[in-house]
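Hi! If you just cloned this repository, the fastest way to understand the data is to look at a raw example. We've pasted two of them here, unedited. The first protein comes first, obviously.
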Amino acid sequence: MGTGAGTGAGNGAGADGRGGGPGRLAGVDAVRGIAVLGMFAVHVGPSPQPEGAGYLLVAADGRAPALFTLLAGFSLVLAQRATDPARRPEGWASRWRPLLIRCAVLAVLGLYLASLWPGILVILAFFAVYFLAAEPFTRLSTPVLTAVAGASVVVGPLLSFLLGPLFGYGSSGRGLVPEAADLTSWPGLGAAVCELLLTGAYPLATYFPYVLAGMALARLCDVRERVTARRMAVWGTAAAVAGYGTAWLATHVFGTRQRLLEAIAVHHPEAMAAADPVREVLSGQFGAVPSTSWDWLLLADPYSQTPLETLGNAGVGCALIGLCALAARHAVGARLLRPLTMLGAMALSAYVAHALVLAGPAHGAASWSAWVAFSGAALALTWVWQRIWADSPLRRGPVEHALRLATRVGGRA
């Protein structure tokens, strides 16, 4: 999940769509809050079933991490835009030292949480890699960045498909996250690097396109403008329909599913006993594309990380940003979004707290009541926190504030 940009949500959101703190867009924070609730649904909710209330879990499955990653790229550009050009650091050390410190803190935190075995695939170490990889792209012009983002949607999954077998991951063994113990040996370190870049649960190859897409969207779209926000909602919906719809046609009309079942029978025979062999295989791949058939690249199932799923997920994120930005322009909409805005402003703290709880008293939780409890507690505690620390930099959230302090100290060293 993302760490955000700018200041906290402060005391609420005005009709202009900005949060109470300067430099934040309430609509963007609200979408991040939605992503947090979606993450809770995936981590502590029951198994997603396409019936009744289960459709909420189906909607969150696979899209929550994609939405966080898209928002990370979006927020990078917002932060860059909010910085006075005259105060932007010049020189390699001034520009890279704060970034390296920020990424190091995220990586250490991610490795620590993963080592606690909370029962979830901790994404923070992957985010450290995303931020490092994104820095050079912030220097590109908007047209070039947009073209690169569009190409990455295809190139990233294709690299995953082609390179997986070269590292011995053609049909299995993917979907892991690095842990602190991996750093104690050279083989472990090599495996951790491979997981971060190609074979892990959220590898750079298939998740970095979301970062680039978010950066391009923030460059192209000023969500403070009503017309722009409306266009984001429309075009995002169109992109989602194009991605998911094309995959549906490929699967149900043009025989992709049948060809995949034939490939599964050869390369994943153990999955044939499952109710849905295709989903069974994907559940063990997560962020990597299986390399046993080209037809895998035509899916858009959760965690398939194909071009079509990436397009569909990015479209959902774009549409949500546009819709929430439109709602935040009005007093009633801003008040309704305020709990989500506050939660989204403290998303990193919420993520760390929920991982710690899952590593302890709530380990293995998987029910509707667990999801309601986690969601209610997160919404209430972030509201209370920001009320108590409304006039303090701590309103950003404890983990966000600590990360900002570490970055500032490092930048001045």
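Ok, and the second one:
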Amino acid sequence: MHHTIKIIIIDDDQTIIEALTEMLEIEGFQVESHLRADKAIASLNKQSSAVILSDVRMPKMDGLSLLARLQELDNELPVLLMSGHGDIPMAIEAMKEGAYDFLEKPLQPAQLINQLQRAAEKRHLVLENRKLKENIAAQTGLEALIIGESADIKNIRQHISSLAQANVDTIIYGETGCGKDVVARALHQFSLRNKGRFIAINCGGISESLIESELFGHEVGSFTGANKRHIGKIEAANGGTLFLDEIETMPLPVQIKLLRVLQERTIERVGSTTPIAVELTVIAASKDNLALLGEQGKFRKDLFYRLNVASLTISPLRDRPEDILPLFHHYACKASEHFSKPLPTMTPAYLDHLMQHPWPGNVRELKNAADRFVLGINETSLASIKREDDMNGSYEDRMEQFERHILGEGLRATNGQLNEAAELLDMSRKTLYRKMKKHQLDKQQFKSHEAIGQE
């Protein structure tokens, strides 16, 4: 129960007020009482940490008019109405108009206390969520990009402010999904090069044969299939920032060429000997310790020293629990905008579930969880899938069925939009196609009727 939430009793009978006040104070509630509804309304505002417990039949203003006035003031303020038997039709009408609950007189103490506790919990969550939203809205600059309340994140924000001004080559360390790219973008955005381009390349996502041409560009005819000149990522980032993600996977021969670029600040396209001058800041990201890889001969030490003018480490989400709820709230708000769906209520049990989860996939996993939360896809577990023959069948069969079920949920939630479904299920579009083919799923069967007209 939240002791910060006050119970406001409105009843024109002083003896009822006294009896209720005594009972609720024994239960640990804070109580305020009013004999007149207008007086109670005057004491309330949108920020009130309060739950209203009011009689339906009162001189000057009945329960319905009181409810209408309170709904105008704040439609998320819980109003519980007490009604004698004859007033039940009015109380039912009030429930339709948005009352939290009605209780028939004579009141059952256990039921009343239970309902008040639930209403107080709800009010507490509404006010907390509003506070979080206001904080996010009030945050300017860095706080809006690098979200979190932990000492680690505050420290990173401070580092970004000073590093961005210095425009130095930087290494960002952190586990997969920690948001190294977000930190890199912030370093660019707050730097003097922010008018230039931010060019990102994932060294792990490009084959060894292509990475050179991707980074340095090539001239026509420099290799089979090179039928037009290609400007590489380094040249494209001239005047801005080049972000090299998963640099630990960069092949050693390419590392030597990159080192030369960093030393001489010139590049040569593949198939050309003309040097092109480049001015840029290089930010590299790695999930492994590059100094250690250097010792093991898996990463060039000279390149490491060259890049390591400054470094930042983002700790995993499990080590900074204070960031879980602000981040979840941020991504849930974004998802509700993106999918044009209302933000569902976060129950205390759900918030607790978020706090208990170890988040092995870090912020990326949290963002996916926020997307699923807004779309109403429940976290599935193997056990929740019913089979006609009740879970007999081989491990493979059950896994197949589980996979099909998850694909179906993702496609249904996104109305068969493959790009969105792939993003939601955290897989490439290619993998999604392949798996849909395997399970003979057709995107048309997941389109809801209203969505078809909007395509």
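That's it. A detail worth noticing about the second one: Residues 109-138 form the longest helix (30 residues).
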